[in-house]
Amino acid sequence: MKLTPGKLRGLKAVSNDRGVIAAAAMDQRGSLRKALAKEKGAEVSDAMMEEFKSLVTEVLTPHASAILLDPEWGLPASKRRARNAGLLLAYEKTGYDKTGPGRLPDLLDHWSCRRLKEAGADCLKILLYYTPTDPKPVNDIKHAWVERLGDECRANDLPFFLEFVGYEEGVDEKGFDFAKKKPYIVTESMREFTKERYGVDVMKVEVPVNMKFVEGARAYGGRQAYSKQEAMKWFREAASVATKPFIYLSAGVSNAEFTEALELAGESGVKFSGVLCGRATWKDGIPVYAKQGAEAFRRWLQDQGVKNINNVNDRLKAASSWHLIYEAEPTMVGVS
């Protein structure tokens, strides 16, 4: 497959010279505000949201190929990223529609793909809650929605990153029952959105297993949903359906759990093209910022935050370049 010039330029901007995406994520909004408010014991201002995002961006992007931000509180932070780091901007509203079934998404009211590009985005990212077992009318709405976004990104020649997060109504997505269903949900979601009709350039996906239920894993909690060999099989099966590059998201787990999942992906021989990792890098600093302020948080990021992102980067030695899929030449460092 060949990319158009704009999409190729955008993907190279958010990748390292190997064609691997080693990106940090800082587009959390509603969940971040709630977490900060809980630790602070008071409401969180817009200025605090901007400051938190700016500190994460400033300290961590020297160790990342890109940063994912939101245009609501993240634009000031985008100006403080390292020169080596590209910019992805989120296009969806935080959360989802709670008035009806299906966790339907919505777009930011005052933004478009064109406007995000004008604001400096190298790539556009959308989050979609999705499960293949939802009723057909619900998923038809979501499929059409993604098709429209794909066309909008094509028209603006901007790379389209689609993040899909699995769920099942009434089921704890961190629990055992969902862990048993997760491999199917992740695999079938990847099978759907890798189709050319959607115009997705990179899929941002969950790992297909919950490491807390993998027997023998360091994160193992004592109840087995899969053996290690079964877990590796699920990694390979999900990857086998992808015709587009895919990267892993951390989904709010700890740094130790996410890096172990990346190790298992590498051991499985999966050709993933990197990560977009957020909370596994900086979430333990939330109480530091809320209770001790900006400078204490900066020091925490310079110490533990940098350690966390480098832990993830170390596991990307097993990642594969998206150049292989899109027939692109590697970036030649030092050559104009």
Topology, element by element:
Blueprint: H1 5-13, E1 21-25, H2 30-40, H3 46-60, E2 66-69, H4 75-78, E3 86-90, H5 113-118, E4 123-129, H6 136-155, E5 160-165, H7 176-193, E6 202-205, H8 228-240, E7 246-249, H9 255-268, E8 274-277, H10 279-282, H11 286-292, H12 294-315, H13 323-326
Parallel strand pairs: 1-2, 1-8, 2-3, 3-4, 4-5, 5-6, 6-7, 7-8
Q: Structurally, how many domains make up the residues? A: 1
Computed over alpha carbons, the radius of gyration is 19 Å
Q: Which outline best applies?
A: globular
Supply the CATH class: Alpha Beta
Name the CATH homologous superfamily: Aldolase class I
Cα end-to-end separation: 25 Å
Low-pLDDT parts are: none
- Helix/strand structural class: alpha/beta
- Main sheet: which strands, in order across? 1-2-3-4-5-6-7-8
**What is the count of DSSP helices, taking H or I runs of 4+ residues?**
13
Mean pLDDT: 96
- How would you spell out the order of helices and strands? HEHHEHEHEHEHEHEHEHHHH
Total strand segments: 8
* Proportion of residues in helical segments: 40-55%
The second-level CATH architecture is Alpha-Beta Barrel
Describe, in plain words, how this protein is organized in 3D.
The chain is of the alpha/beta class and 336 residues long. It has a single domain, classed as Alpha-Beta Barrel (TIM Barrel). The protein is 44% helix and 12% strand. It has 13 helices and 8 strands. It has helices at residues 5-13, 30-40, 46-60, 75-78, 113-118, 136-155, 176-193, 228-240, 255-268, 279-282, 286-292, 294-315, 323-326; strands spanning 21-25, 66-69, 86-90, 123-129, 160-165, 202-205, 246-249, 274-277. Strands 1-2-3-4-5-6-7-8 form an 8-stranded parallel barrel, surrounded by 5 helices. Helix 4 (75-78) links the parallel strand 2 (66-69) and strand 3 (86-90). The two termini are 25 Å apart. The mean pLDDT is 96.
